[in-house]
Amino acid sequence: MEENISQDLEFGSIKISDEVVAIIAGIAATEIPGVAGMSGGVVNGITEMLGRKNLSKGVKVEVGEKETAIDLFIIVDYGVRIPEVAWNIQENVKKSVETMTGLKVVAVNIHVQGVNMEKEQKSQESVKED
């Protein structure tokens, strides 16, 4: 990713890379209850196999001079209300990116890529054990 954000100030310039915007968006998205995780591609899977956690996994950003658009690829927990989770993600990502970078977020597109059944299976197993 290249450095797209640059501001010339009186004492120098500030540059924020696309990767930084993606990391902020990824962390803000996973803070929302009901998000099981981010969905990454083959490259992200290989990165994680090597033991490196990729905080921008499942995030695609397009950064202009003063605006940005963000695509998030997520996996939700089984049983959650997906539209409500998506709205909460959009609000939290927009607020976090705008606050931390000063960029205007024009779009936060949510792509639900899967449903995590692990919690549902664990709760059923604990009921059987009781």
TrEMBL record:
<comment type="similarity">
    <text>Belongs to the asp23 family.</text>
</comment>
<protein>
    <submittedName>
        <fullName>Asp23/Gls24 family envelope stress response protein</fullName>
    </submittedName>
</protein>
<dbReference type="Pfam" id="PF03780">
    <property type="entry name" value="Asp23"/>
</dbReference>
<dbReference type="InterPro" id="IPR005531">
    <property type="entry name" value="Asp23"/>
</dbReference>
